[in-house]
Amino acid sequence: MVRLILLTVFILQFFMFSQQIEERAGKVTYLSSQNVYVEYFNTKGINTGDTLFFRDLNNTLIPAAVANYISGRSVAATPTGALSIEKEMILFVFVSVQEEKSDPKIEVKEVEQPVKKEVETESKITVKNKGRKSVYGRFSAQSVSDFGNTPVYGYNQRFRYSLSFTANEINELPLSFNFYSILAYRVSDLSKSEHNLGKMLKIYSLNLEYNLDSLTELKAGRFIESNLSSIGTVDGISFIRKFDNFDAGLILGSRPNFSDNGLNFNLFQFGGFISNFYESGSTSTRNSLGIVNQTESFNTDRRFIYFQNSTYFSSLLSFFGSAEADIFKNENGEAKTTFSLTNYYLTIRYKPVNEINLSLSFDGRKNIIYYETFKSFLDSVLENEMLNGFRISALIKPVKNLFFSLRYGYRSTSSDARASTHYGFSINYLNPLLFDTMTELFFNSNTGAYLTGKNFGFSLSRDLTDEISLRGGFRYNSYIFEKSNIDFVQRILDFEIYWQILRNLYASISFEGQYETLETFNRIYFSVSTKF
C-alpha cells in the first residue's frame, strides 16, 4: 500500500506542476580551507543557497556543495560533507529560468577563476538563434607536481589537457556539434609497457544535434539527456518532441564502461520520459518522469523509474526534489517486478529578505544493484540499508560586505555505531579600506562512526589589478581515529596567483604545503587556458 501511495503521489505531482529547468555542469578548479570553487560556462540564474550535485558511477545525484558566493565566472560553495570533493570533479546545478529574472543574488567580490566550458545541456529545444556565437570552445593544460620528505610521498608529476568545442548552425543548417574530452596521465605511467591510452583519454561529449523543426530534436553520439540525467552518459540516439506544455522523448543506446568510460555496446539501454510545464501567477514548476531499462548482454541489469520536480513559488521560496525507484528484481534466476525506493533528495530554499538565505535538505540512498554486471557480489549487497541525512544552513548578511554562514548536518543508518554529524560556521568580510581584501575565518567539527575531528583557519584574497588576483590561507586539521587511538594533526598553507594575460588567455599557479608531525607533503599546480 505504501508503495502504491508513493507512486500515486509521483504521478499526481507530475501532472499538476512544472517549471523550465536547465542543468549545467561545472568543474572544481580550487579547494580552499572552507570553500570549493567551481567554474561554469555561465553563472546567470545560479543563486546563493543552490545545491551543486555530483553524479556517481551509479548515475546517482549526490548533494556535494551549497553555493555561497557567485561571480560572473565561478561559484564558491560550501561542501555538504556527503562526499570528498577533489579538483577536476564535475558538479551539476539545476537552474530555474524564472529565477534568473526575479531572484536577486548576494554577490561579493572574489578571486574569480577562468571559465571552462564543460558538458552543458538545455531542457528546451532551440532552432536557429542568430544571437549566439556559432563556434566557441576552450583548451586548457594543467601540471601538478607532488613531492614530500618520505618515500611514501616521493615525487609525482601529472599532466592534464582538456578541450571543449561547440559549433552551431553548421552550413546555416539547424545542426550543431559538441565535443568535450580530457587527457590525463602520470609521467611514471608512460614508462610502463602496459599503460592504457583508453584510461588516459576520456571523451565525455561527442554528438551531433539536428532540429527537424521548431518542435523536434534528434541527437546522436555521446551525450547527457537533461530530462533523464539520472542515467548519466548515453552512447546512442535521442528523439525529443514538444507538445504545448509537454515534452516527450526516447533514448536508445548503451552505457560506458564503469572502469574507463569507454564504449561498451554490451551495456545496452533504452528509456523514455515525459515532462510537463505549468505556470500560475508567481508559481511555476516543471516535472520530469522517466523509465529506463539497462542491460548487460541484453539481459536486464536494472530497471527503474525516475522523477524530478522543481517548483518556484516566488523569489522568496523554491523547492527541488528527485527520486529513483527500482522496479526490477532478479533473485536465484527469477525475475520479479517490484518497487524499491533507492534514493531521494529534497531541498527547500527560503529567502525572507535579501540579507538572509536559509536552506533545508533531506536525502537518502541505497546501494544500486546491477543484477548482471556485479552478479558475483550480489550476496553481499542484496540487503542494504537506506542512508538518511539532512542538512540545514543559513547565510546572513547583517551589514554591507559582511557575511555569516552557519551549517549543521546529520547522516546515519540503523547499523551505525553512532550517527555522523557536522557543524560549523564561517565569517567573510570584504574590507574596502584594505584594498577590497576578502577575509574568511572558519571552524568545522565532524563526528563519525570511527573518528572525530575539527579544523579551523583563515584565508585572504584580493585583486591586485583587473587582471591579477592573489589568495592565501592557513588551516589546522585535528582528527582522532577512535578504533586505533591515533591522533592525526595537519597544518596546511596554500597560496595562489591568478592572471588574465590576454582577453581570452588565463594562467594560474598555486602551492599547497601539508605539514604533519614527521612528514611533509607539497603540491604545485600550474594551469593555462584559452577560449575561442
How would you sum up this structure in a few lines?
The protein is mainly beta.
Keywords summarizing the entry:
single chain; 532 residues; mainly beta; globular; 5 helices
Largest sheet: 22 strands, antiparallel, barrel
Q: What shape does the CA trace take?
A: globular
Q: What percentage of the residues does DSSP assign to strands (E)? A: over 45%
Class by SSE composition:
mainly beta
Percentage of residues in helical conformation? under 10%
Distance between the termini: 57 Å
Question: Number of helical runs?
Answer: 5
Rg estimate, integer Å: 24 Å
User: Stretches where pLDDT falls below 50 for ≥5 residues?
Assistant: 1-20, 97-131, 378-382
Strand tally: 28
Description:
- The structure is a single chain.
- This protein has 532 residues and is mostly beta strands.
- Helix content is 6%, strand content 60%.
- It has 5 helices and 28 strands.
- It has helices at 2-16, 99-102, 187-190, 197-200, 378-381; strands at 21-31, 36-39, 51-55, 61-70, 74-79, 90-96, 135-148, 155-167, 175-186, 201-213, 216-224, 233-243, 246-254, 268-280, 283-296, 299-312, 317-331, 334-353, 356-365, 387-396, 402-412, 420-431, 437-447, 451-463, 468-481, 486-502, 505-515, 520-531.
- It has a 22-stranded antiparallel beta barrel. It has a 6-stranded antiparallel barrel with strand order 1-2-5-4-3-6.
